[in-house]
Known about the structure:
Layout: H1 29-33, E1 56-59, E2 65-70, E3 76-83, H2 97-104, H3 116-123, E4 127-132, E5 137-144, H4 148-161, H5 166-185, H6 188-200, H7 214-219, H8 222-232, E6 238-244, H9 248-258, E7 282-289, E8 294-301, H10 312-328, H11 334-340, E9 347-355, E10 362-370, H12 376-393, H13 397-414, H14 418-431, H15 437-447, H16 450-459, E11 466-474
Parallel strand pairs: 2-6, 7-11
Antiparallel strand pairs: 1-2, 3-5, 3-6, 4-5, 8-10, 8-11, 9-10
Helix pairs in contact: 2-8, 10-16, 11-12, 12-16, 13-15
Amino acid sequence: MKRAFTLLGLLASISAGAATNVAAPGSSPLVAQATAAAPVRAAAADNPRTNAAGAQLFTLANGMQLIVQPDHRAPTAVHMVWLRVGSMDEVDGTSGVAHVLEHMMFKGSKTVAPGDFSRRVAALGGRENAFTSRDYTGYYQQIPAQKLEDVMRLESDRFANMHWPDEEFKKEIEVVKEERRLRTEDQPRALLAEQLFATTFNASPYRRPVVGWMSDLDAMTPADVRAFHRQWYTPTNAVVVVAGDVQVDKVRALAEKYYGSLPAHAVPERKPRTEPEQRGLRRIAVKAPAEQAYVALAFRVPSLTRVQDLQASDRDALALLVLSAVFSGYDGARLERALTQGEQPVADSAGSSAMITGRGPALFLMTGVPAGGKTAQQVEDALRAELARVAREGISEAELARVKTQWIASTVYERDSVQNQAQELGSNWVQGFPLDAEERLLALLRTISAEEVQAVAAKYFGDDQLTIATLLPQPLEGARKRPAPAAGARH
């Protein structure tokens, strides 16, 4: 089943164990670059301490939170630690430090030698990895349920007692640099995505790449990484999520034992970095060795800030989510039919994404690859023509019903995985959303009308809200040849 997004727009990178600005295999680099988008909010006053599926929320003695989701269909469990810190919390000059710290968390504690963490999880019959985005950092292990205490002991230890020699940093920073080269500098569309975000945003820290600028990686020191850990890795900025074949009371007791006694401190004040109003169309061209051109349109749109007591802008954000699904949320959706089919298709592929959730500004993205004999300008014109068509003619009730039905079906399907359940709960927590945010969101999406979708198509897609990036292909013989990723690369 084709699905262009997860309902809360946060999980594209996690399911693949990706950790920087990389989404699930095969997805657009723009989806990865925009895997988040809207200010952090405290959980609503009516935040339930349990959801319809049985998840429960607790606060440990030191302020750390715990979410437990029992699911007894298989003897496995997923253990995750999410921190409400990502690349948007960095300062200029140390871009990429959140992601580098994630790498270094695997390099030892005061009692665990470098590399032993992963070896011990594997010996338990488990698998593990981590991920970093603009909004959050997370670590996970999937293990046999009876091994939960073992990974809690390991994870809580490195959370509080990260310790490694400078020589480990010197080796690992080279791994991160090579990751940047392989995943951004040598990938034309990823390079374009990086430049698009740097152009779209002025004040917002979303302008910086998650992996960091190369000059900042070159200048980074072990002290930079340790200082970031001291600032942000505190129980008051984290949640433990456990889903699977577990008993709630036992998990709570284990969490208090291994996490509840960790020392805590207040997180640094998060000062607002409000993106100023855009005052005209922005356009960039990116030259890189490539076989095909590529065009990306990024429109500034409102964020989804809550899933109860909605404001007008929240309903607009939901209507934009529906619009994106109408455009490219299923096989044979509008963009596919209009741009890639017929006797003379203008594009080989085309898509859209409504990145309406997160801790920073939101974007509506449209992308396309010109068909043979067609230009990027023709694709750009065709994408904008489809927007104008919806603004003029609206969408059909059949299209609306189809995307709503697909959301319901795919949400049910995703819940078959305890990994997906844990991810959903962790991403809701990062947003400050209640435990039952997915149920609330589905209910709200059912109320979005075709008229609301037409209204947002007419409201948010003018030149003053738009940044356009075009990839200008250069000869492939200019492309650099690189070896396989360095040993030890986690992603």
